[in-house]
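User: Could you check the structure of this?
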Amino acid sequence: MKYNILLVEDDQMIATGLIYALEQEGYIVTHCQSVMDALAAIAIGQFDLAILDMQLPDGTGAQVQVAIKHAGAAVIFLTVVDDEGNIVRAFESGAADYVTKPFRLRELLVRVKRVLQTPDNGVVPLTLGGASIDTAAGKAYLGGNLLDLTALEYRLLLTFAANRGQLLTRTQILESIWDSSGSFVEDNTLTVYIKRLREKLGDAVQIETVRGLGYRAD
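Assistant: Sure, the predicted structure tokens are below.
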């Protein structure tokens, strides 16, 4: 899955390095240098994540955040503003992360990946085939009807949705659905849960068994 990232950064040197690094990771990057340009990009494009400088020539990253949130994208602030008040306000307004300059590039890339691939970050809506997942409420729907899923079946669906189209090994799946109470899900039990989830989803979601490797869902 190709993720679309909006980068709003007026420092051209920082932007050039970030664009190169993000594109090397396989992301599609749209770069803007001002609030006005960012709002124009949001009006015509779809983004999964926005990386926003707080201080821009014609305003602030917070102004861009308001627009991008309505478009359903997550936000990471990347800024020299490091006072506690601004950081707290950013998180209270729904930012997924806050990184101060100077920053370590590899660390930022890890943070970007975490935000994009964490299904319950509270910003990016999840769909898989004909199923939709309300991560805030912890509920899944099929054709508008609530799915009756156990906690482990729900986490399994989340895992597939967050990695749509990607091959997942059984080990990766088992690690992702580790019971919150600390009870480990056994390998043999995983087959049972996938069978039950397939039955509840019907033809709306295709969960493919890749023999000897794992599973892929679309």
